[in-house]
Automatic annotation (TrEMBL):
<protein>
    <recommendedName>
        <fullName>Pyrroline-5-carboxylate reductase</fullName>
        <ecNumber>1.5.1.2</ecNumber>
    </recommendedName>
</protein>
<dbReference type="InterPro" id="IPR036291">
    <property type="entry name" value="NAD(P)-bd_dom_sf"/>
</dbReference>
<comment type="pathway">
    <text>Amino-acid biosynthesis; L-proline biosynthesis; L-proline from L-glutamate 5-semialdehyde: step 1/1.</text>
</comment>
<keyword id="KW-0641">Proline biosynthesis</keyword>
<keyword id="KW-0028">Amino-acid biosynthesis</keyword>
<feature type="domain" description="Pyrroline-5-carboxylate reductase catalytic N-terminal">
    <location>
        <begin position="5"/>
        <end position="98"/>
    </location>
</feature>
<keyword id="KW-0521">NADP</keyword>
<comment type="similarity">
    <text>Belongs to the pyrroline-5-carboxylate reductase family.</text>
</comment>
<dbReference type="InterPro" id="IPR053790">
    <property type="entry name" value="P5CR-like_CS"/>
</dbReference>
<dbReference type="GO" id="GO:0004735">
    <property type="term" value="F:pyrroline-5-carboxylate reductase activity"/>
</dbReference>
<dbReference type="InterPro" id="IPR028939">
    <property type="entry name" value="P5C_Rdtase_cat_N"/>
</dbReference>
<keyword id="KW-0963">Cytoplasm</keyword>
<dbReference type="InterPro" id="IPR000304">
    <property type="entry name" value="Pyrroline-COOH_reductase"/>
</dbReference>
<dbReference type="InterPro" id="IPR008927">
    <property type="entry name" value="6-PGluconate_DH-like_C_sf"/>
</dbReference>
<keyword id="KW-0560">Oxidoreductase</keyword>
<dbReference type="Pfam" id="PF03807">
    <property type="entry name" value="F420_oxidored"/>
</dbReference>
<dbReference type="Pfam" id="PF14748">
    <property type="entry name" value="P5CR_dimer"/>
</dbReference>
């Protein structure tokens, strides 16, 4: 892929995940800089991935071709305002949830070249999923760069309308946490049944990895067919599945995802 000088503004969980994925995919660490107010996360990134670090957003952004905005949504306005003089002509990529693309033009006080993306933490392992949205006027070259950057850390989908980003949050940005919760609950139940915690974790995590790989590697089978292959008539799985269905798992999942989107929409009104 084309390699450009890229600066991550904010060196938290998500920057770490993307930087880890990029470096593991062969992106030149010397072209990557991350900024952060406190030192510990920068020191860990430099030690683990050999990237450049800085406490100075302005200096780091001035020296980059591409700026990836990776601070919490409530800090975004102040961060953008302070960078307004050094971003002309540069490609901006934001990963923030809930801030509409139009707001960035207000923050910078001018029209900017900005692509909205919604990645997730498995980017760190090259197993990420990113949704991308580019407004009209963004060049094919800039779109291709943003896509290649995120593809280095996993799979990508483009959404035609900005509202699609909120759906990506519900399906992929937030969803690793849903699966962690499910695994957490299985481990807790296993421990309550008397298993050592380490064994309960090994059993649950390996089942999750295996099940996800089976979904991915059998595109001709639906998840329902894969489930049917596990579920012997009158057997053990049928009892467990019936319990989930009776407990309203499907509507719970739908409500959770709907509330995730609702929160993104609320955030969009408050920024
Ligand atoms: N976590 C996730 O799974 C996902 C998050 N996102 C989005 O990614 C963004 C970042 O989230 P996440 O990585 O989880 O958050 P984190 O809090 O882990 O990271 C944000 C980082 O920004 C740093 N920071 C604060 N102020 C500044 C500043 N003025 N200049 C530079 N850096 C600053 C913080 O430093 P310090 O801690 O030292 O104050 C922190 O390290 C959010 O907008 C979120 O919506 C998107 C997809 C998934
Ligand atoms: O919880 C959040 O708001 C962010 C966006 C997607 C994942 N974490």
């Amino acid at each position: 892929m084309q390699q450009k000088k890229i600066c991550f503004i904010g060196a938290g969980n998500m920057s770490r995940a993307i930087i880890g994925g990029l470096v593991k995919s062969g992106y030149d660490a010397a072209l990557i800089t991350a900024t952060n107010p406190s030192a510990a996360k920068l020191e860990a990134l430099a030690a683990d991935y050999g990237i450049n670090t800085s406490h100075d957003n302005l200096d780091a952004a001035s020296n980059a071709d591409v700026i990836l905005l990776s601070v919490k949504p409530q800090l975004m306005q102040g961060v953008c305002e302070a960078l307004a003089d050094v971003i002309d002509g540069k490609l901006l990529i934001t990963i923030a949830a809930g801030i509409p693309e139009s707001r960035y033009h207000d923050y910078f006080g001018k029209q900017v070249k900005l692509i909205r993306t919604m990645p997730n933490t498995p980017m760190q392992l090259g197993l990420g999923m990113t949704g991308l949205y580019a407004p009209a006027g963004i060049s094919e070259d800039d779109k291709a760069f943003a896509e290649h950057l995120m593809r280095a850390c996993g799979d990508v989908v483009w959404v035609a309308d900005e509202s699609g980003i909120d759906k990506v949050i519900a399906l992929a940005g937030s969803s690793p946490a849903y699966f962690f919760l499910f695994i957490e609950a299985m481990i807790e139940a296993g421990v309550q049944m008397g298993l050592p915690e380490a064994d309960a974790r090994t059993l649950a995590q390996q089942a999750a990895v295996g099940a996800a790989a089976m979904v991915k590697q059998n595109p001709d089978l639906t998840p329902a067919e894969l489930r049917a292959n596990v579920t012997s008539k009158g057997g053990t799985t049928a009892e467990a599945i019936a319990t989930f269905e009776a407990g309203g798992l499907r509507s719970l999942v739908k409500d959770a995802m709907g509330n995730c989107i609702k929160r993104a929409e609320e955030m969009a009104k408050s920024f």
